[in-house]
Amino acid sequence: CNFLMNNAGIGRGGGALTDIKTFKQTIGVNTYGPIHGCLSFIPKMKESKEAGIIVNTGSKQGITMPPGNLVYNVSKAALKAYTEGLEFELMKERKEKEAGLII
For residue 65, what are the CA distances in angstroms to 14, 53, 60, 84? Predict the structure, then answer.
């Protein structure tokens, strides 16, 4: 069984009017980091014909959206949406691969 664990996170704070540099850095690490991992390894996992599990590390803040850290919340909510979409696509292909979000 192949196993991919994507664990990326920085906790830069900030609200809706936070500077774009902070948004880009936080989303770059928290969202695009795991996406890059998936894009790099899932094709190889599919080629192996073995079962596989993909786990992306999320955060409850990406679900509950507590005030005071909007930038982080957005980045983890986007990762949650990506992981759920990935799981659906893998199920649709009927591959023995699963994706999940750990919080």
Answer: 13, 27, 8, 18
pLDDT digits (tens, 9 = 90+) for 29-82: 999 999 999 999 999 999 998 899 999 999 999 999 999 999 999 999 999 999
Q: In the 8-state DSSP scheme, what is residue 83? A: H
For residue 33, give the nearest of 63, 78, 71 by alpha carbon: 78
- Residue 50, classified by CB atoms within 10 Å of its CB into exposed (0-12), middle (13-18) or buried (19+), is exposed
Between the CA of residue 25 and those of 19, 75, 102, what are the distances in Å? 10, 10, 22
CA distance 39 to 41: 6
Q: Compute the distance between CA of residue 103 and CA of residue 100 in angstroms, rounded to an integer.
A: 10
